[in-house]
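Troubleshooting log. The previous run stalled partway through. Resubmitting the same two chains, unchanged.
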Amino acid sequence: MRIAVDAMGGDNAPRDIVAGAIQATEQLPDLERIYLVGRQAEIEAVCQELGKPRPAKIEIVDASEVVGMDESPATAIRRKKDSSVGRAVALVKDGQAQALFTAGNTGAAVAATTLKLRTLEGIARPAIATVMPTKLKPFVLIDAGANTDCTARQLAEFAVMGSVYSQEILGIDNPTVGLLSIGGEATKGNEATKEAYALLQKMPLNFKGNVEGHDLYEGATDVVVCDGFVGNVVLKTSESAAHAISHWLKEEFTRNPIRILGALLLKRAIGQIKQKGDPSVYGGAPLLGVNGICIIGHGSSSPFAVFNGVRVACESVSHDINGKIIELRKAGLTSPETEA
Amino acid sequence: MRIAVDAMGGDNAPRDIVAGAIQATEQLPDLERIYLVGRQAEIEAVCQELGKPRPAKIEIVDASEVVGMDESPATAIRRKKDSSVGRAVALVKDGQAQALFTAGNTGAAVAATTLKLRTLEGIARPAIATVMPTKLKPFVLIDAGANTDCTARQLAEFAVMGSVYSQEILGIDNPTVGLLSIGGEATKGNEATKEAYALLQKMPLNFKGNVEGHDLYEGATDVVVCDGFVGNVVLKTSESAAHAISHWLKEEFTRNPIRILGALLLKRAIGQIKQKGDPSVYGGAPLLGVNGICIIGHGSSSPFAVFNGVRVACESVSHDINGKIIELRKAGLTSPETEA
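Second attempt completed without errors. Output:
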């Protein structure tokens, strides 16, 4: 495998990105080459700082510009011709790399890949898939934020992409698919979800009908489909609720000496619970539906998260997820050209 | 005040509803009369069972039918002419009662009030407002589930209704209003929210721009506006996340004797945290925008929740929230007739 890594994207870039990339070259036998894309001098300085000679499998590709986390994606990609994320995407387009990983500005990654790689045959828009923990087993939420105002057809495409990802990368056999709505019946939902329900029923998917917010962390289905506005709200609201509960726990658990003693006895337990919600083990969120493989890491990606992101990128290549998405899409949805 | 109470709606009806209504007559001095609407014999049996003589302020209004929690709202309201919720709404329409409280089928309450009472002047659709806890202070989420596919104009109407409720019932002076979206900038969101942003900026509200899922439980604004699809997902996802965390806490806290001891020392603390998320203190969710006052309780309303629902119904009458909604709407939005 040959993977391009945006060395400059993320809150702790390039340090943690480089560290994770080095770890990947050490532990992933299938990995032939990592292209570390970014400011050569900075990347080399980090290698020195880490006290490790640059592994032979790592090649630095110089890119002089960086897209900031708060920059407007479309403008940044248009203006910064030599950005690290743009150059990483170009490596995939040229076939030099087979996939890319970035922990930088998500919007910029979506814009650059959509612009340069275009979408897969019969897929209108790429979508972000995120793996979420539940009481039992993780599920794939798609779209987690790439598209607002989706049509029923687009939601159906997301279901195809999420199914393939769940099957190939999470190893779930014949994954169940739920459509996020506000009631169990086919008649409950907004215009797009009601129409999507009818479409999904006819497709070769293990479609289980609507799921509600209530069901999400019960592990109701392996894939949960929604538009990117709703997906973004779900992700961020869940994080916010978890933060509030954690805040209340801390507040109440430190109110008097007896409680402080109790909390001390539970210190390890609390740490283990926090880990359950830790996204770094799943290796970031793939942007599915683009003609190439792009894994997007959390802005605060640790070296371990970067390592996992590179691992998932390799697996996505070896499992040919894009070929399988095209295949399953063809089996379930007419091509847009035929429709028009 | 004269309040109609749907005695048959809710998981623990009529018992907990009657108990809450009796408590209200004992503790709310402004309350002249409660019409307990439902099957007379059952209600009288509950009064006996509770060991209390029926207070003079309570009058039973016989209604032979009950809308079940899982019935299709529109069909149920059309077919069951003598339903308790329908009769309670009719009491408000006739002016015999000034407000109603129901813990029954939410959709049926929305359908019955919209059909019989119609909406306030210049308000296209009624919306459910729910009071949610945060780290600091509660906020009003509107719409929590009455409408999907809302226009920008409707979102702006929700902002007006939520502001009035926050000011009059929660006592927040000049409440801040946020529009739930997926980024802080005015250009972030879906078509409806982007258009609503522009509308809200021009209105006499304390509009603070977009809020994100992240901000919700930080107490970013006093009112958070969204369509009912998103609002329903936010509510139910938050509950689901809280359940999952509670499940993990229980699992980890009982894993060995030392942890069990720790958990015992924290038992009261954990109980206090659970209370923070308890919606019963806020007295249910008002359905705002109908030409009458309707407070909708949670299906599992306890007597205390019913008492609080009746209290909020009385306050909504005495503060003339509907008059104030009409006034603020006129100050901020043209009447739909002028527009057309």
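Takeaways: The first helix of chain A runs from residue 15 to 27. DSSP finds 13 helices and eleven strands in chain A.
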